[in-house]
Amino acid sequence: MIAPSDGSWIEAPLVLLMLAAIGLMAWRLWQFLRRQRTAQGALIDRINSLLPQTQCGQCGHAGCRPYARAMAWGEAINKCPPGGATTIMQLAALLNEAPQHLDPAHGQEQEASVARIREADCIGCTKCLPVCPVDAIIGGPKLMHTVIDRECSGCDLCLAACPVDCIDMLPLTAATAAKWQPTAGGRDSEIVVS
């Protein structure tokens, strides 16, 4: 067999070599992106662990984890009224940013609190049930409702939903606070049995 005189026999190995180089670059890019995604996920987990886990939506996100994801991508760290100045300081340290004041457009910092339903006034309308992001309210239609203290995150979303204004937000007093033992996730708590 005689080799073609135009040099086309050299093109096939060069094409294979180029394809191999492109494949290697694609594989390295995929590994780099996988490492970045893992690092980004770890950062989101760390940010989320600093948030109060009220799931109140005052930051403009559906809950604490979506806000943590947004902060990992550069959103402002000062949109969490339940976390307040303490959380903002912790986020600033974690993300190596300058501390900021709480953005007043998202609310004001308040003392930790829990919802209480005045059960005698409750009409059992169930309008507070779907708005509670942590399912801390129990009760059925036309029956009185009550709040499970240890599950309540103090978001106060139930206040606006109640048509008879039978829900009060009470400060987490020293006596009540002694029953709470925060876990790594924020205000998720367990009752401590003495």
Secondary structure layout plus pairing:
Elements lengths: L10 H40 L13 H9 L11 H12 L17 E5 L19 E2 L7 E2 L9 H5 L5 E5 L2 H4 L2 E4 L2 E6 L3
Antiparallel strand pairs: 1-4, 2-3, 5-6
Helix pairs in contact: 1-2
Protein described:
This protein is of the alpha+beta class. The chain folds into 2 domains: 98 residues, no CATH class; 79 residues, 2-Layer Sandwich (Alpha-Beta Plaits), CATH 3.30.70.20. Helix content is 36%, strand content 12%. The protein has a two-stranded antiparallel sheet with strand order 1-4. The protein has a two-stranded antiparallel ribbon with strand order 2-3. Strands 5-6 form a two-stranded antiparallel ribbon. 23% of the residues are buried.
